[in-house]
Amino acid sequence: MRDAALIWFRQDLRLADNPVLHAVADRPLLPVYVLEDDAPWGPGGAARWWLHHSLAALAKSLAERGAPLLILRGDPRRLIPDLAARIGAAEVHAGRQVEPAARHRDAETHAALDRDGRRLVLHRTALLHEPHRLRSGAGRPFAVFTPFARALTAALDGLPPPLPAPDSLTPVPAAPQGLDLASLGLLPAPPEPDWAAGFPDHWTPGEDAARHRLADFLRDGLQDYARDRDRPGCPGTSGLSPHLHLGEISPHTVWHATLDHPGAGAETFRKEVLWREFSHHLLWHHPTLPEQALRGEFNAFPWKPDAAMLRAWQRGRTGYPIVDAGMRQLWRSGWMHNRVRMITASFLVKHLLQPWQSGEAWFWDTLVDADLGNNAASWQWVAGCGADAAPFFRVFNPVLQGEKFDADGAYVRHWCPELAELPDRWLHRPHEAPPETLRRAGVTLGTTYPAPVIDLAEGRRRALAAFDAVKRSDAA
Q1: pTM of the model
Q2: Quick one: pLDDT at residue 85?
Q3: In 194-263, where does DSSP find H-type helix?
Q4: Catalytic residue among 338, 403, 418, 421
């Protein structure tokens, strides 16, 4: 039997289609997860809730196959080399991560292992393709999605089927003792209110749940995905994003599973998978993506930070129902429909003139699928300052967006039940409804439902004026 190996789990909390396990499955193994303290862009509150349950599922699966998961907390740059030396592992195997802090951590861990005659071996576990290997015809990183998607699709031609999960694993003898999962403090605990109490109504973390969700989507949702994905009031999306973020299912598995499904639904869905890859491609080549605008002129944008405006947006109290429904869905379920993410983000950045980084930070803390590349790239796209971004002068009107994508009001009525009795005509514009209509529906603006925090026409005017000021400054 070959020498022992240390498996360092990060964003690949699964057994199936895991190249790390496949590479060392014939060796005595010590699987380990290290929760880093004070890491830049460490998981937010909602993601920590998911992580707890995902680790519990992974630990159960590993134990059933004979190699229990060791859980540690601290600095992996010290813990991983020490652990490798303790069990006599010549190699540490892990999935490659694209986040800047993770890349720096891995470089230092590699150096520490190398000084001791050991190796850090990184595998592609979280993406379809290595972001540093895909280049434009001119040899540069891609900055526009369509040519990126075309190149990556071509590179994926002939992709082999996903790897199976191992039936059994061999543990290292006398494995060290780790921490109890509960001691990591990933779940809300008194005196903090249990803000995650409603999450289990919407989500079941873990590899088995990810596999079942994919199967359900392929059977019930993929065919009509191109039509239904923009309708927040119906279950038209896959719901796979949090499973993909922590690697409970691989993008390889998801991609491969759609290839046997012809039609516009599967094609449109694969483009969403490719957008995820594009976001990580951007993060790899632009490490400051989460903090700084890719278009430099936007770093001098005349934002108007306003704590009260930001708080109204965060609480779903803006007076615009599609925005408020989205923000309440986010708070109660840890997730928001993608179309509504665009609407709420546009409203914050453009109508309210709040910095996109403020919205990015709130999403980071409240999304169970908070992913650094996706979150940063998408906020910059909405703000008009990123790669291949929507132009800043494209200002979503939340009333018209609500009427277009939630025409029957199912979404708003679910998340803003105080508006449920309003007729469809006024549901997305209660501030324009006749007083008698409001009275019959039991709606009192400013009391049972907030009055608008800003006039839409005035907000649009301010946004375009600010953008013109940036253009003039950049041209000067």
Answers
A1: 0.96
A2: 96
A3: 207-220, 225-228, 241-245, 251-258
A4: 338
| Selected catalytic residue, list 108, 272, 403, 421 | 272
* DSSP secondary structure letters along 274-292: HHHHHHHHHHHH-TTTTTS
Specify whether 255 is catalytic: no
The C-alpha R_g of the chain, in whole angstroms, comes to: 24
What pLDDT is stored for residue 476 in this prediction? Answer: 53
Task: Answer yes or no: is pLDDT of 389 > 80.
Answer: no
Distance of CA 147 to the CA centre of its chain: 23
| Residues 382, 350: Cα–Cα separation, whole Å | 9
Decide: helix, strand or coil at residue 330: helix
Mean pLDDT of all residues in 410-430: 98
Tell how far CA 213 is from the center of its chain: 17
User: Within a 10 A sphere around the Cβ of 406, how many other Cβ atoms?
Assistant: 28
Q: Is 303 a catalytic residue?
A: yes
**Catalytic entry in 275, 284, 331, 362:** 275
Domains of the chain, each with CATH number or no CATH: 5-126 (3.40.50.620), 127-160+206-285 (1.25.40.80), 296-475 (1.10.579.10)
2 band by pLDDT with thresholds 50, 70 and 90: low
pLDDT at 392 over 80: no
**pLDDT value at residue 147:** 96
Mean pLDDT confidence for 444-450? 98
Q: Which of 284, 313, 335, 379 is catalytic?
A: 379
Active-site pick, 331, 356, 415, 426: 356
- Counting other chains too, the contacts that 427-431 makes at CB distance below 8 Å and 24 or more residues apart are 427/321, 427/402, 428/320, 428/321, 428/322, 428/398, 428/399, 428/402, 428/403, 429/399, 430/319, 430/321, 431/319
* Catalytic residue status for 379: yes
* CA–CA distance, 476 with 474 (Å, rounded to integer): 6
pLDDT digits (tens, 9 = 90+) for 36-80: 988 899 999 999 999 999 999 999 999 999 999 999 999 999 999
- Asked whether the beta carbons of 459 and 453 are under 8 A apart, the reply is no
d(C-alpha 340, C-alpha 362), whole Å: 15
Say which of 108, 303, 418, 421 is annotated catalytic: 303
